[in-house]
Amino acid sequence: MNLNNGDAKIVKNAGAIVSNPYGSIMKSILVALYQLQAKEVIVVGHHGCGMTGLSAEKMIESMKERGIDEAAIASVKDAGVDIDNWLKGFESVEDNVRHSVNTIKTHPMLPPNTLVHGLVISPETGKLDVVIKDQ
Q1: How many secondary structure helices (H) and strands (E) does the chain include?
Q2: Out of 42, 45, 49, 91, which could bridge 97 as a Cys pair, Cβ 3.0 to 4.6 Å?
Q3: All domains of the chain, ordered by start, with CATH?
Q4: Which residues contact 127 (CB under 8 A, 6 or more apart)?
C-alpha cells in the first residue's frame, strides 16, 4: 500500500467488520478523523479471512473443545448478547467490505465529504482489489 510510519492510523479487528455504528471500531475511526487529522478511511479485508463462512455454532463448538463450559456461554447470553449474531462471520469478503464501508459512510457523525474506500488484499502477493473507490 506504499505507507510509511505516520501515514496511516490503523484500526484492526477480525474480518474488517464494522457492524455496530456506535461500537469501538467506529469510535476509533471518528477519533482518527477528528483528533488525529486523518483525511480518508480505507476498509481493507483480505482473501482467505478466517471470518469467511464462520458461524456461531462452529465458534461455540471450538470454545467447548478448548474448555469453555456451558455456564460461561450462558453468562454471555444472560448479559444480553445475541451470541449468534456476535460470533457470525460472512460469506463474501467483498460484500463484507461493502457493508462496513456503508456503515461508516452513513454514520451521522462522519465529517462531510470524507472519502471511505473499500479494498481486499491478497496476503500472499499484496495485490489489492478495489471494491469501492469513493469520490
Answers
A1: 5, 3
A2: 45
A3: 1-51+92-135 (3.40.1050.10), 55-88 (no CATH)
A4: 121
Say if residue 3's pLDDT is above 90: no
6, 36 contact by CB (below 8 A): no
pLDDT band of residue 7 (cuts 50, 70, 90) is confident
Residue 99 in grid coordinates: 457493508
Cell numbers placing 135: 469520490
Q: Please, which residues have CB within 8 angstroms of residue 49's CB and are 6 or more apart in sequence?
A: 15, 16, 89, 93
Report d(CA 113, CA 106) in Å as an integer.
Answer: 11
Angle at 114 between CA 99 and CA 92, to 5 degrees: 15
pTM: 0.90
Q: What does residue 47 show for φ and ψ, rounded to 5 degrees?
A: -65, 145
